[in-house]
Specification:
The complex is a heterodimer of chains A (97) and B (641). Chain A is mainly alpha-helical. Chain A has helices at residues 15-42, 57-87; strands at residues 50-52, 55-56. Chain A is built from 2 helices and 2 strands; from the N terminus they run H-E-E-H. Chain B is of the alpha+beta class and 641 residues long. Chain B folds into 2 domains: 3-200 and 378-629, Sodium/glucose cotransporter; 210-320 and 333-366, no CATH class. The chains are: A mainly alpha (97), B alpha+beta (641).
Chain lengths: 97, 641
């Protein structure tokens, strides 16, 4: 049987831009995630340190990683959409009119 | 068992089956059956992602681990969610662009190589089966308290329902079951956390007046002339056992036996005896609980409470309603003290005893890693922790049953948007797990025999309705995830192996029929494994699936997308090495040695998590084999077209 994508999609001129942006954002998040793991390995007692409102570094960093993932995801989506629109000629160069 | 539980359960099952029959007409083509025709809205797909991903391990396992080990359980939440970043930034759009029905499609799109088809299909099958077992075990765990049915009946029930869902409407019905389950899970988890916060904290939790708080006694003794002497003459010492440096004392009082944990004070020579719970199988095989024959009425009491809250105890410690931040700050306060429970088993009088004994942890130690993962332990302990965090980060984007959901949406942009919805929904849920787990830990709702029941038991402390809803949703959690896994396995066999590898499928209709037959076979296998693996730790098995997926699939996906010199043989070898090394290392790990009944310290591979070895090994294999075969084979990273 033929092998092709389930839904045909045309060429994506933003493909390389999105791949590069995705790779950079992945590296940024991986860096922050690595920081969390490294603190736990090198100085685990630092995780007990209360930062604000009675919340310690473990809780703030843990919640922060979850929220940071969502923020990066939204930035990525917005940037990809903007580039796709621009390359389709729906939005002028330099952002919204 | 109660009428409300049964009613909700029956209603839910009827609804799920109704959806399946309603959508049956859409599953006549292979595209409809395996990819829901690629017509699912990205918003629905995003929540369905959450429904697919938040398995029994996430809901039951993580809450249970937080309830018994504090922040260490939350590490799973952090790692599982971080994995979605890899899925979004690296995998989502290219996979959607390249693939058709299965993960193998995307991997093989630029190569059309039989080795890739074979190895990727085998990897999909193995990962799916590793993931299926804990889900089915979880089904049995849930059905017993919900409907009063034996474990095996629960597993068979789930198997039959899931086979019906998958065989009638394939990915379409699976998507809507996962969507509904994902939505309900989020809503009712939020409700559960809200009522936990409204109740607040107390040192004598009585589950809203439903279950009287049980006080555990402490006796004092002294060590004199090499033996223990009790201060209270109404107690007599019947036996003393040393297990792995811990000392347990059997006492007799009014003709009844009980086991106590001895805590010596080296400075004064005094010894504190802490009342424990225990189960025993006597020499004649009779099971007992706390010294009396085991029965429905005589079971281990649920546990978990704070001894002090920010330095206060008794009535003055009760907080009343709390906001989420205050709740966390009070649990994690250095002046707070939590009573946790551990267990130890040993022989006694020809029988076997398991003692469940209390240990006390300060709040600031509960809300940081260290209770389960020994981050301050040996180098091996630390490497093990690193290995786990690596596998969690890289495993999500390599799980076949998650990857196939990218084919159900109409475009790569929709794949991207649905991943963002998934990150929002799953991230929100994982934040809630910390509150649910700590809620169970501090409300006396931890089952000593099975911490997976912590979240449903916490719900029960708020009344039958919430318990019934949470249990029905937990059951739906199993249905949603198992459906996704069976579809993934079905695609691997019918599409990858029978059609594309063996070329025995002649037309679209045959492929759908083959998929349904495989779904039936995999469902039946899942039932058998779910019964055989009763009692095995579900989180461990899911961790195994993550490690295998991250080792076998991720290196190929990443290198295929980012390294132009990647060859088909490199991918084939990488998957083979990833699968065999991860499974092989797990089989020789301390955890498995414990399951074999051997000393874990004699295990040839010292780590419990193989990812730190098997993932780089798989990458390295791909690079070496690709470089060696690059002149003979077709290469190429995907392009924009």
């Amino acid at each position: 049987m033929l092998h092709e994508p389930a839904v045909k999609t045309g060429p994506d001129p933003a493909f390389l831009y999105k791949r590069r942006l995705g790779a950079w954002m992945f590296l940024i998040y991986a860096f922050v995630y690595t920081g969390f793991v490294v603190i736990n390995l090198v100085r685990p007692s630092a995780m007990e340190k209360v930062l604000f409102g009675g919340l310690n570094l473990a809780v703030v960093y843990g919640f922060g990683l979850i929220i940071f993932a969502l923020i990066l995801a939204l930035i990525y989506s917005q940037a990809c959409e903007r580039r796709e629109k621009r390359l389709r000629g729906e939005e002028p160069r330099g952002g919204r009119a | 068992m109660n009428i409300l539980s049964i009613g909700l359960f029956v209603l839910f099952v009827a609804f799920v089956l109704g959806i399946s029959f309603y959508f049956a007409g859409r599953a006549k083509s292979a595209s409809g059956y395996y990819a829901a025709g690629g017509r699912i809205h990205w918003g629905v797909n995003g929540i369905a992602f959450a429904g697919d991903y938040l398995s029994a391990a996430s809901f039951l396992g993580i809450c249970g681990m937080i309830a018994t080990a504090g922040y260490d359980g939350f590490l799973y939440s952090i790692g599982y969610l971080a994995g979605w970043i890899v899925a979004l930034f690296i995998v989502a759009e290219p996979l959607k662009r390249l693939g058709k029905y299965t993960f193998t499609d995307a991997l093989d799109a630029n190569y059309n190589h039989r080795g890739i088809k074979l190895m990727a299909a085998i990897s999909t099958l193995l990962v799916s089966i590793c993931y299926l077992i804990p889900q089915m075990v979880g089904a049995g765990v849930l059905v017993t308290p919900l409907l009063g049915l034996p474990h095996a009946v629960g597993v068979i029930l789930v198997g039959i329902i899931v086979i019906t869902i998958v065989a009638t409407a394939g990915m379409t019905s699976t998507t809507y079951v996962q969507f509904i389950k994902g939505g309900l899970l989020l809503i009712f988890s939020l409700v559960l956390v809200t009522v936990v916060l409204i109740r607040g904290l107390s040192t004598k939790p009585d589950q809203g007046g439903r279950v009287p708080f049980r006080e555990y006694r402490t006796l004092s003794a002294v060590q004199a002339e090499g033996r223990l002497v009790l201060g209270d003459p109404s107690w007599q010492i019947a036996a003393v056992r040393e297990v792995k440096g811990l000392r347990f004392v059997k006492l007799l009082s009014e003709g009844r036996e009980s086991w106590w944990k001895a805590e010596p004070d080296a400075a004064t020579g005094a010894v504190r005896l802490l009342e424990s719970q225990f189960t025993a199988r006597l020499a004649d095989g009779t099971p007992t609980v706390n010294g009396a024959p085991a029965s429905k009425e005589n079971a281990l009491a649920t546990v978990g409470n704070m001894e002090t809250i920010a330095g206060k105890s008794g009535d003055e410690a009760a907080t009343g309603s709390l906001n989420p931040f205050k709740f966390l700050s009070l649990v994690g306060d250095p002046g707070s003290r939590v009573r946790l429970w551990k267990n130890a088993s040993f022989d006694d009088n020809g029988g076997r005893v398991t003692v469940y004994y209390p240990v006390f942890a300060a709040g600031n130690k509960i809300l940081r890693p260290g209770q389960r993962f020994k981050v301050e332990g040996t180098a091996t302990d630390r490497i093990d922790f690193l290995s786990l965090m690596l596998a969690l980060f890289l495993g999500t984007a390599a799980l076949p049953h998650i990857l196939i959901r990218y084919y159900t949406v109409p475009s790569p942009a929709a794949a991207r948007k649905s991943t963002i919805v998934a990150i929002a929904a799953i991230g929100f849920f994982y934040i809630l797990t910390l509150f649910m787990g700590l809620g169970a830990m501090t409300n006396g709702t931890v089952n000593l025999l099975d911490d997976n029941m912590s979240a449903p038991l916490l719900a029960r402390s708020f009344g039958t309705f919430l318990f019934s809803m949470i249990s029905a949703i937990a059951f739906a959690t199993v249905l949603g995830t198992v459906s996704g896994l069976i579809i993934a396995a079905s695609g691997a066999v019918a599409h990858d192996l029978l059609d594309r590898y063996a070329k025995v499928i002649k037309n679209d209709k045959q492929k759908v029929t083959a998929g349904k037959i495989v779904a039936f076979a995999v469902g039946a296998l899942a039932i058998v494994l779910g019964i055989l693996f009763k009692g095995v730790n579900v989180t461990f098995l899911v961790g195994l699936a993550f490690a295998v997926a991250a080792s076998a699939n991720l290196p190929s996906i990443v290198m295929m997308l980012f390294w132009k010199r990647t060859t088909a043989r490199g991918i084939t070898a990488s998957i083979f090495v990833g699968v065999s090394s991860s499974i092989g290392l797990i089989l020789f790990s301390p955890t498995m040695y414990e399951l074999y009944g051997k000393d874990p310290l004699t295990a040839p591979f010292p780590l419990k998590n193989p990812g730190i070895v098997s993932i780089p090994l798989s990458f390295l294999t791909l690079v070496i084999i690709s470089l060696l075969t690059r002149t003979k084979a077709k290469t190429g990273a995907p392009t924009a077209a």
